[in-house]
Amino acid sequence: MTSKKLPVEHGRKGGRARTAAKSLAARQNILLRWHRPGRDGVIPPAALIDGAWYVGEGRSASVAYWDDTRETFHTLSANSWFDPATYPEITKRTVRIKQERHVAAGGTFAPRQILSAAAS
Predict the structure, then answer these.
(1) 3-state secondary structure at position 85
(2) pTM score, two decimals?
(3) pLDDT in tens, the chain (120 residues)
(4) H or E stretch including 14?
(5) Phi and psi for 10 in degrees, rounded to 5?
(6) Most exposed among 2, 37, 80, 97, judged by the fewest C-beta atoms under 10 Å?
């Protein structure tokens, strides 16, 4: 007598199923990988002073101004994009103000040291 084997389905459903436990594990993985607390010397949002300038690491600049009302950093970004219509002529540089959130809130600026406090 031969025994008939049933198809095994473990792994397939588990990989595709959305569960609360898997979502939580994914969020924790992201925090551990990109926003490690306490290890890198990032100043927490609660310790930031409104109107102060901070040195750190960001997407577009290494110095930023903290705006407590909006809970964002303001950075200056200079771009020298060439104009394809007038290339190779040198074009004017543009300077823009950008907003970046704190890394603890899922943003891209990590303040490490205060540069100057706001005048009261």
Answers:
(1) coil
(2) 0.58
(3) 566 665 555 555 556 667 777 777 776 766 665 555 555 688 899 999 999 999 998 888 899 999 999 999 999 988 777 667 777 777 777 788 999 999 888 888 999 999 887 655
(4) helix 12-16
(5) -75, 145
(6) 2
